[in-house]
Amino acid sequence: MTSWQDRLQGQMPPDWEQEINIFEGQIELKRQGKIADNVFAETRLRRGAYGQRYDNGQRHDGLQSRTLEYPSAEITKGADTLWDAPGMMRIKIPYGGFTTEQLDVMGQVADEYADGILHVTTRQDIQLHFVHLEDTSDMMRRLAAVGITTREACGNSVRNVTACPIAGVCHTEAFDVTPYADALTFFLLGHDDVQDFGRKVKIAFSGCAGQACGLVKMHDLGYLAATRTVDGKVERGFALYVGGGLGTVPQQAKLLNDFVPETEILPLAQAIGRVFARLGEKRNRNRARLKFLVSKLGIDEFRRLVYEEREILPFDPRWTSFLDDALPNYKEEPLRPAVSLNGQALPEGFAEWAATNVYDQKQAGYATVTLNLPLGDLVSEQAFALSDVARKYVGDNLRLTVEQNIVLRWVSSADLPALFLDLQAIGLATIGAGTIVDITSCPGTDTCKLGIAASRGLAGELRTRLSAKNASLPAAIKDLKIKISGCFNSCGQHHVADIGFFGNSRRRNGRTVPHFQVVLGGQWQQNGGSYGLAVGAVPSKRVPDVLDTITSRYAVERERGENFQTWIGRLGKVAVKEMLKPFQEMPLYEERPELYTDWNDPREFSIGDIGVGECAGEVVSLFSFEITQAEGEHFDALLELDRGDYESADEKAYNAMILAARALVRTQFLDVSHEVEQVADEFRTRFYDTTLFYDKYAKGKFARYFLSRHDDPPTTVTEESAHQLIEEAQLFIEACHACDARMAGVVNGGVTL
């Protein structure tokens, strides 16, 4: 048998091969010390290669089919890149669409180069973990030979273009956005005008406004399908939204144009890229996303600059060539004829599975089936088996979803019972797709260097508990969305969940305790129509009880037809705070040591016996006492926002920052007054200028939130600006907690904060 190199000879796109050869050469130059570390870091990121953490020494998924020896924290201490230790490879899957051949190859490289697990991300990518740098170029060649690239899956680039996974088969869409997403993906891939960004750019396509679909309102560029009739002829186009994003401080996208003709979607994206590259922030990464440029300029000025740029773009035939070539020829072909399900005997468990995992397409006699992947993971053996199943029923009609699942499209309705049994045999017939059981989670502390708490561990625990009582769950809560991030960056999309959680930590009784901030009231529908707000942090081990309390109360108290978001608004922040309060109390370590650990992580967050007095009472530090004043003021800011008094909300959020800064300053200088200027000056001098406030990853990001508001107060306050400052104040308070813990020598998850 010939080698895979021989079998694939001549099948790889020539430009992709050249790019991989260049990257391979750069690896060798790095080996020889001829490329600076920061230059090589950006180089490998733009090829999809990330570093990852190892301090846990284990994965929290329980899906491994073999015993793996992961590097210990001691061996890899200080390993920041793939150069030092195995890392993560991100594989770009435009609009989530892939073939059975591509799935086979991804399964092969996962098996041979990684830990045998294909992880589906919230951007319809595939990630492989524990990949060695020396294997990356071979992996890239094998993927490229079947039409898959890792280019610009990471780094300051245009990330994977996402789209609705049921585009083309959806009942409510304006039209199928798939070929447009595909065209924009490969037009921008490697384009000269998108190589000089200060941060990443995320793009999404949606076919209809009312559903979650492509979530266009939380993207840098969001294309929402629309039609109009001109002279009796129906024209296709898109409402184009710009400047959205989640991250630490989420922002809703603004409408750039309510109808961009299909002939203009590529050149307009190019023009936006050029404006962003020229005017976007480069030095301060914390303000380098497109959303900050749109906010700084205002949507009207940004629009003017974009259309001015569009007028001077050199002509490119690719702008419209796809309309004459790819678009007319794009068509998904069902593998099997449409036959109804009527009259068939149904296997045990089929009805429950079909109720949540089967969607009847607009094409009569066909259905789309969702494979509900726990934690978004698929082991390589399952990938190979799934390829065989797909070849039998749907051919190459497979897609990934932003909820970390896989869908099989164009299933003949008559085949559903047999497909169910085949999926059941390979462990892929789990019920509950799209329900409260189907929890989205980022990698968290399993592999992400930014992870604070074990998001995957929590997601697995919640999933297990909810699945065990799925049959008895009240109907009102079955369709709620739960999303979990391991830190404030919202990779798990916690801001747009009904109930979201993001990881943080608190110092309690002289120890660092893993916590999750509770975020309530986000809107998944309407393309990510609105964002929830943090309402309080609870110890990680108490999150399941918090979830039970919230959902049970909603099921009992909701009015007829009232959704969760409306109920939370009616309940009010004060009642929510009271609901969480019992779960925020921490007993002494000796009484409940399990509360001082994270999910599926055996290590204790401990620094010894600090905090226990002679009469077994808690010794509360001055900081811990005073920071609660900041948290109280922040909560009041939330109430003012609810009342519609945006100026008061802004002022209280700012006051919360002042109080938090003063609490921290008083750990060094007890005599600081309450005078705002002195507090700000002392904080700047003692914590910002000295970089004492900096952590390893966020640097001085959260300090600048406070100092920027102090140095440049707003002339006018809007709902959006008040909302943003409240988010920033929350993050600043969290950073003050972390700074205090670092100074106290507290260890968080095995890594000094």
Structure at a glance:
This protein has 753 residues and is of the alpha+beta class.
Task: Describe this structure as you would to a colleague.
By secondary structure, the chain is an alpha+beta fold. Among the domains are: 4-144, no CATH class; 169-329, Sulfite Reductase Hemoprotein, domain 1 (2-Layer Sandwich), CATH 3.30.413.10; 350-425, Alpha-Beta Plaits, CATH 3.30.70. The chain has 24 helices and 22 strands. Strand 18 and strand 19 form a beta hairpin. It is globular and about 80 Å long. The protein starts with a helix and ends with a strand.
Distance between the termini: 53 Å
SS content category: alpha+beta
- DSSP helix fraction: 25-40%
Radius of gyration over all CA atoms, rounded: 26 Å
Average pLDDT level: 86
Looking at the overall shape, the CATH architecture of the domain at 169-329 is 2-Layer Sandwich
By DSSP, the count of extended strands is 22
In CATH, what is the class of the domain at 169-329? Alpha Beta
Biggest sheet features: 5 strands, antiparallel
User: What shape does the CA trace take?
Assistant: globular
The number of helical elements comes to 24
Strand content: 5-15%
Spatial order of strands in the largest sheet? 1-2-5-4-13
Which stretches of 5+ consecutive residues score pLDDT under 50?
1-10, 57-81, 605-619, 746-753
Strand and helix layout:
Blueprint: H1 4-7, H2 14-31, H3 37-45, E1 49-50, E2 87-91, E3 97-98, H4 100-113, E4 117-120, E5 126-131, H5 133-144, E6 162-163, H6 178-188, E7 203-206, E8 221-230, E9 233-242, E10 254-261, H7 265-279, H8 290-297, H9 299-312, H10 318-324, H11 326-329, H12 350-357, E11 358-360, E12 366-371, E13 377-379, H13 380-393, E14 398-400, E15 406-412, H14 416-425, E16 440-441, H15 455-468, E17 482-485, E18 499-508, E19 511-520, H16 525-528, E20 533-539, H17 543-557, H18 564-571, H19 573-584, H20 622-643, H21 646-665, H22 676-688, H23 701-711, H24 719-743, E21 747-748, E22 751-752
Parallel strand pairs: 6-7, 7-8, 16-17, 17-18
Antiparallel strand pairs: 1-2, 2-5, 3-14, 4-5, 4-13, 8-9, 9-10, 11-12, 12-15, 14-15, 18-19, 19-20, 21-22
Helix pairs in contact: 2-3, 2-5, 4-5, 4-13, 6-7, 7-9, 8-9, 20-21, 20-24, 21-22, 21-24, 23-24
